[in-house]
Amino acid sequence: MTMEKGAMVTDIKPGQKVKGLFCVASKALRTAKNGSPFLTLTLLDKTGNIEARIWDNAEAVNGEFEKGNIIFVEADATEFAGRCQLKINRAERAEAKDIDPADFLPESPADLEKAWRTCRKAMNEVADDILCAILKEIFRHRETSQAFRNAPAAKKMHHAYIGGLLEHSASLIELARLITGKYSQLDRDILISACLLHDIGKIRELTWEHPPIDYSDEGRLLGHISLGVQMVDLACVDIGIKTDNEKVRALKHVILSHHGQREFGSPVLPMTEEAMVFHMIDDLDAKLNYLAGLKASMEQEEGCSWSTYQHLFERYFYLSNNRKNQIGETMDRRGRKEPKSAAAQPLLWDMDKPTGNK
Ligand SMILES: [Fe+2]
Ligand SMILES: [Fe+2]
After folding, report:
1. What's the gap in Å between 168 CA and the centre of ligand 2?
2. Which ligand is nearest to the CA of 287?
3. Which of 16, 196, 279, 334 could pair with 260 as two cysteines, CB 3.0-4.6 Å apart?
4. pLDDT tens per residue across span 102-157
5. Measured distance CA(228)–CA(97) in Å, rounded
6. First and final CA of the chain: distance in angstroms?
């Protein structure tokens, strides 16, 4: 029998007493200004994540559970820097047999059956024989198509939930359709194939069977861009198409360049019209999805129109037009003031760290 999940992240408000099971997404032992150690944690369940601190007995508690474990927590919900945070009074590891993993994996809010129909239809509409054959070869494997339907598109940032890759891919197909309707010079088959295959390497880059969503060893070492190109090449070999065929090369160029810049993980810059357009729509869909998530998390905090400082974008966001403006003291009226602690970071949109791949 599984243990009761208890409190859900999305329902937690400052001032509440909290009891429940949460997945440890990150854990670090730090030292406070007064010299005493404390544990800083990110806890998650399928509804979101929340920062937490353990002040008492931190060193001893640190050894009792690891990242990825499910823990039972008793805590006080407090407010820190405008965000809800848990001050944990008791934390102990729960037995794997007592938990339902589905409670801890966030799911896409989109209609995934509809998204899959969009992808299937787009696949069938690809007129180019070579691109059509590559798509059919890759997706005919049940394991691959099943993983494509379930995989998240990222560990965090955009579409970081079960079904995220499918939702993102279907959304890009819709955008590619709109744009190719307007700009007839674009190769629609290349763009549609890229929508389906540009992030296909994420099915090997990420792991999601057990919470939290994380990188596989292969994913960290090779990254989804090279894994995706490898999958395309392998499909070509299996069906007897030369890997340097012109269409194959055009598709691989879009996959390789879709992050837009070398420092964001692309080994080459977008150098075809299709690659330029694809990078733009991929970036657009990812960023708007990130902002939708940010807005949803802010809606839990009443009267909040300005986001917390978003280091990745080096700005605050004003995300509500139906609420009273609540500009905080730490922010100027244009939302541009940068906190002293904020280190400027490049916009590594599809990456976890400047040196790693997401
Ligand atoms: Fe990507
Ligand atoms: Fe993408």
Report:
1. 7
2. 2
3. 279
4. 899 888 999 999 999 999 999 999 999 999 999 999 999 999 999 999 999 998 88
5. 35
6. 36
pLDDT in tens, 247-294: 999 999 999 999 999 999 999 999 999 999 999 999 999 999 999 988
Ligand 2 centre to CA of 284 (Å) is 10
Do you find a cis peptide bond into 212, omega within 30 degrees of 0? Answer: yes
Ligand nearest to the CA of 256: 1
CA of 49 to the centre of ligand 2 (A): 23
Cα of 84 to ligand 1 centre, how many Å?
31
Domain 9-103 is classified in which CATH homologous superfamily?
Nucleic acid-binding proteins (2.40.50.140)
Distance (Å) from CA 165 to ligand 1 centroid: 10
Q: What is the pLDDT of residues 34-87, one digit of tens each?
A: 899 999 999 989 888 899 999 998 999 999 999 888 999 999 999 987 788 999
Residues 6+ apart with CB under 8 A from 355: none
- Measured in Å, residue 88 CA sits from the centre of ligand 1 at 37
Distance 65 CA to ligand 1 centre (A): 32
Residue 286 vs residues 41, 64, 99, 172: alpha-carbon distances, Å = 26, 37, 32, 10
Measured from the alpha carbon of residue 169, the closest ligand is: 2
Residue 9 CB-half CA count within 13 A: 22
Distance from Cα 262 to the centre of ligand 2, integer Å: 16
The Cα 279–Cα 289 span in angstroms is: 15
CA of 198 to the centre of ligand 1 (A): 6
